[in-house]
Amino acid sequence: VSDWSSDVCSSDLKTTSCWLLVADITGSTQLHQRFTPEELPVLTGQWLAECKQLIEECGGSINKFLGDGFFAYWHNRDGIALQVARAMEVLKRLQDGTKLPFRFVVHHGTVFVGGTSLGEENLSGQEVNFIFRMEKVAANMGASRLLSEPAANLLMAHFACEEAGQHPVPSFEGKFVFRKF
To answer: Please, are residues 108 and 19 in contact by the beta-carbon 8 Å criterion?
Structure first.
């Protein structure tokens, strides 16, 4: 995610406030046992296409497809928190109705944006690193949905959250408060 092509220089970078979301299919070993080698790529492709459509309908963009998941973002602007909340609610319902179990995490922070690679806007910085590490924290907790404290504080008006405690995040100092919804 933080790969930069050699033709992007620091003057091309800008900082911007973004909503970040990482979704990841869970239990891939069990999925390979449940589905045939022909079925699983079709199911994964359908899931990714449905998620992409949802994210785009809610004003966001998929930045990277990750094989068994994706990294999405929304540039912060008026009214976008409601769109992010809407996407989260639909993803939550999708979790209940899909054959592919998945988890997703949401964070809000300032990222570096600059240049494009393969038609995708390049996002980088500590907040991008944080959300990917946060997804690993969610996996270790067994949480199917997790919000960072900055995201939860901005979304509390749209739905109820419950505390999930303070947890260390690899490569980051200290412990961080997370919330489930």
So the answer is: yes
